Amino acid sequence: MQTPDLKTRFTIAAALLVAIGCAQAAGAKTPSDAQMIASAMHAAPARVAKDATIVAAGADGKMRTLRQGKNAFTCMPDNPTTPGPDPMCMDQNGLAWANALMAHEHPPAGKLGVMYMLAGGTDASNTDPYAQKPASGNHWIKTGPHLMIVGADAAFYAGYPNAADPDTGVPYVMWAGTPYEHLMVPVK
Question: What's the pLDDT tens digit per position in 123-132?
Fold first, then answer.
């Protein structure tokens, strides 16, 4: 099993460092490794999570492996600065897609990926991948537990709803028409 490359680890670490720094500034305690592992394992089905690599950003901003895995999945714990659960778990192609999103780059072509957020996710804009909070016209939605299919060609999404304000209880295309469009599949 390959672990994420240095660039990917750095990008994830930078995003998580900001979250941890905000939580610390607000007086929140940094979760223990055991708490972060437990949080990350809620992201995916138990049979996936039990053998996944678990990573988290340290207080120094460096990505660290909390637990080395034995499969192709990498899981990250909840973001302590958001109101809802955010743990996620992704395969290597999903990790490459997420890295591209965070770096504002086009995702790698021809790499279909799977991402789990079985604990749900923080609410987000359905039209703007970089929106930070609800605003007029950015179509803020609530997402419950879901699976994401990322990195597919546009033809894959044909036939799925892609409205700005979708019914989040059925599969739909999030961020339609952007390089980061992906299929959201609710699981509850």
Answer: 788 888 988 8
**Beta-carbon-side half-sphere exposure of residue 65 (alpha carbons within 13 Å):** 14
Number of domains the chain contains: 1
| Over residues 110-135, mean pLDDT | 88
Residue 131, domain extent: 6-186
Whether the predicted model's global pTM rises above the 0.85 cut: no
Cβ atoms of residues 174 and 139 within 8 Å: no
Would 46 be classed as within a structural domain? Answer: yes
pLDDT in tens, 14-70: 344 334 343 444 455 778 889 999 999 999 999 999 999 999 866 676 778 999 999
- CA angle (94 as vertex; 188, 69 as ends), nearest 5: 90
Contact 148, 182 (CB under 8 A): yes
- CA dist 37 and 21 (Å) reads 19
Q: Which two tokens stand for residue 183?
A: 């299929």
Report which of 120, 140, 125 is spatially closest to residue 186, judged by C-alpha positions.
120
Query: Does residue 26 lie in a domain region?
Result: yes
On whether residue 1 sits in a domain, the answer given is no
Residue 97 domain flag: yes
How would you list the strands of the sheet with 113-117, edge to edge?
63-67, 53-57, 73-76, 88-91, 113-117, 146-150, 182-186, 172-174
